[in-house]
Amino acid sequence: MSEQSTSPGADKGPDTGAVENTVAPTTDTVRVETAAAETERDTGGGLMSGSFGRNIGLVLALLLICAAGVITAGDRFASIDNSLTILRFAATIGVVSIGMTFVVTGGGFDLSVGAILALASVWSTTFATQNMAEDTHWILMVFAALAVGAGCGLVNGVVIAYGKVVPFITTLAMLAAARGLAEIISERRTQIVRNEGFKDFFSADVAGVPLIVVIFVLVSAGGWVLLNRTTFGRRTLAVGGNPEAARLAGINVNRHTVMLYVLVGLCCGLAALMLIGRTSTGSSTHGDQYELDAIAAVVIGGTLLSGGRGTIVGTVLGVLIFSTLSNVFTLNNQDTSTQAVAKGLIIVVAVLLQQRLARRATTT
Amino acid sequence: MTETPTARSGQPLLEMRGIVKRFPGVLALGGVELEVRAGEVHCLLGQNGAGKSTLIKVLSASYQPDEGEIFWEGQPVSLTTPQAAMDLGISTIYQELDLVPDLSVAENIFLGHEFSTAGFSQRGETTRRARELLARLGHREIPAGRSVGRLSPAAQQIVSMARALSHDTRLLILDEPSAVLDQGEVDNLFRVIRDLTAEGVAIVYISHRLEEIRQIGDRITVLKDGSTVATGLAVADTPTSELIKLMTGRSIEYVFPPRGKAVPRSAEPILEVSGLELPGVFSGVDLSVRAGEIVGLAGLVGAGRSEILETLYGARRPSAGTVRVNGRELRRASVPAAVKAGVGLCPEERKSQGLLLDQAVYRNITISTLGRFARLGFLDSRDERRRAATVTESLDVRPAGVDRLVRLLSGGNQQKVVLSRWLLRECRVLLLDEPTRGVDVGARAEIYAVVRSLADSGVAVVVVSSEVEEVLGLADRVLVVREGRVVHEGPADEIDESRVLDLVMEGKVA
User: Where in this protein does the record put region Disordered (chain A) (predicted)?
Assistant: First the structure.
């Protein structure tokens, strides 16, 4: 056998050399099989270009919505101010959706993201509205929000991984409990943040771009690296793709599952801070229906709801599609009900396309 | 049931000729012949992976054959949908019963063809007809109104049969019906089968238990590696030894690599298992494997072989016993601990337990060694690919190319990918569960050679296989497992296949 190490993609060379060097007698069936697998490989390549094509499809959809915006709302849509409005709107839900992408890729599901966000926002702002806020630094608010998010995620993860309760039920329970707790703490009042340090920091601009948009960009980039370039990401794909095989390969599947829920919880805590920064308030109604928006963005982005395949780029595009769409509807004075109908249509069409692609990939 | 004209004319009820079924990379059925007459019990024999399940799925139209013809009462038919098979009168009772646990017995029996008037179900009629069918099967005691989930497995099976009969069944396929039954229930099942055949219903009976086939069967068809090796043998004229030979005998000779020189008995064992017990499955298992030694576990399916491997690997929690690797005791029920200590498992179900089918070859190989390619958690995937390529080249995985999806490889090459994973990890103990199931002959020989060369390099190997010849040919030492206990231990060259089969079947062959 040749001594040169094979670089990826260098496998198109003839297999004959390898066949002649087999340890044991090779039969004709093996050769036939090789040829068969060779033809199949081409469809494998097609699959790769398929996922690339999907992102192109999402970009086209986004451009289409933008075109609709330009036509119907003209300069009111195509302005820097409006673009920043869209991005600011996309940023909080975007950060949550990145976390959701990891959980879903790892074979899980989280309905409690919006409630965790609300609880984190209330807990965090309680620090700033009570008397002690006078002499405490606003960084405490940051820690509080992140700790609440991570803590709720930890509870979700432990119940799911070690208690073997299905994610749907566990996070549904967390949804109810976290929002209820947020209502108790805030006494159902909107808590206004007066801490100047916090407000100055989170409403700041970085080179003309709002800080929360910058955070969204950083989280997306970090998420991409984490999913595609680290052991954590690789294990997430393995655990979501085939948990039994991952377990027998020596991965601590339960511990990894817990980490995934902690990660999405942290994202919710961060999103809570961004939302407080944008609105200067903490409230038990924050993040209402974020779970549905985040799952919708993740799914139309191309992450498999059954786990094992995830795309950060797709999720970001999914988030942008929904927030741009809702911006265009608002500029045209359409109410949120019409938006909801359009959203529903987009989800169904996107998932139908996704399934068709998946079927083509498995049957050939 | 109506009198079947075919029973008298001698024309077979069902005939399958030259059935071929291919799956990507695997030839599941390579020209199977089957002929079933009305009113007979036709037994289908064969080891795991011989193609029995695929054949009955073709017959019940869950799968479409790629080649071959099917005749029903002499007329060519094409079974394109499960409904078409059902319309002819073919019913299948699978090993995993397909009943709805929360519906009642009667509702389950008539599921899909309920009695209704204008959409309202006729509960009275349904119950009455269900009682009739249960009575016909001799099981009046099963309450038609009880939910199926609360019945015993035996009673559930009767409900399945009642459902089959509700379709005016003329050919009933029973896939290992006795697996969930105790002796009394088996006798009952046989009585039901005799009643049915007396009414002209044909039965295709699948079982591993040869003594059952002696009791109930009329004729036998033996499958092996996806082909018919014998068809229409009369049960009464065929000795058990002949059947075992047909099932296990090699059509093509195995190519086993020569054994190296014997590992001295005094050598320190790498793997030591003592008193391992998994309640209800196996108990008191002692096992020690020295460096360079291959130990084989022989036994029937269900004797506990796979469970022994999985338990000592930490994938199941034992109730007693210890596992030591290099003298250090492993933490109980922890796969990561076993892997860390240098143990690797190639599991029985390659696709569902071993591989990430939709991921690239290299990712499947490096999954147990990720830490080695990571700096601060960041993976060097070029290094990963390079190292994976080195291993796959040494095992001659075809087609080469570590970016290929594992799903697209043949069974033998998929098995080599799992082996590559542990080769890359340089494990000290390798556990192989059915390493050549679904693997073609050429690749089998290659896998044997790899296993032997690993042993020669000092790895301790444990092999589980349903094929006695494989265990005897590959292993240095053999342990025979029967019903969760090790009943024999000794050098592989001091025991032959028929002796192993005797040990394995003891108390089973009449």
Answer: 1-44
With CA atoms as reference, the chain A residue closest to B335 would be: A250
Tokens 């059935």, located at residue: B19
CA-nearest residue to A27 within chain B is B442
CB contact under 8 A, B408 and A37: yes
Token pair, residue A331, equals: 């500029």
Residue B313 with chain A: CB contacts under 8 Å: 248
At B37, the amino acid letter reads R
CB B170 within 8 A of CB B90: yes
**What does the pLDDT average to over B291-320?**
90
Does residue A215 fall inside a structural domain? yes
Of B379, B399, B403, the CB nearest to A38: B399
Per domain, the residue ranges of chain B are 5-89+168-248, 99-152+159-166, 268-333+462-510
The closest CB to that of B363, out of A24, A44, A234, belongs to A234
B410 interaction partners in chain A (CB closer than 8 Å): 33, 37
Question: CB-hemisphere CA count at 13 Å for A183?
Answer: 8
pLDDT band of B149, cuts 50, 70, 90 = confident
**A245-300 pLDDT, tens per residue?**
999 999 999 999 999 999 999 999 999 999 999 998 999 999 999 999 999 999 99
- Cross-chain CB nearest to A27 (options B313, B401, B442): B442
- For residue A362, the chain B residues in CB contact (below 8 A) are 407
Q: Give the Cα separation of A227 and A232 in Å (integer).
A: 7
Contact B340 A250 (CB under 8 A): yes
Both tokens assigned to B340: 């860390």
Sort out which chain B residues have CB atoms less than 8 A from A237's CB and list them: 356, 359, 363
**CATH architecture, domain B5-89+168-248:** 3-Layer(aba) Sandwich (3.40)
Residue among B255, B336, B377 whose CB faces A24 most closely? B255
Q: What is the 3-state secondary structure (H, E, C) of B386-420?
A: HHHHHHHHHHCCCCCCCCCEHHHCCHHHHHHHHHH
pTM across the whole model: 0.75
Could you tell me which CATH class the domain B268-333+462-510 is placed in?
alpha beta
Strand A205-206 with B343-346, pairing: unpaired
**Minimal C-alpha gap between B30 and chain A (Å):** 12
| Distance between CA atoms of residues A168 and A108, nearest Å | 8
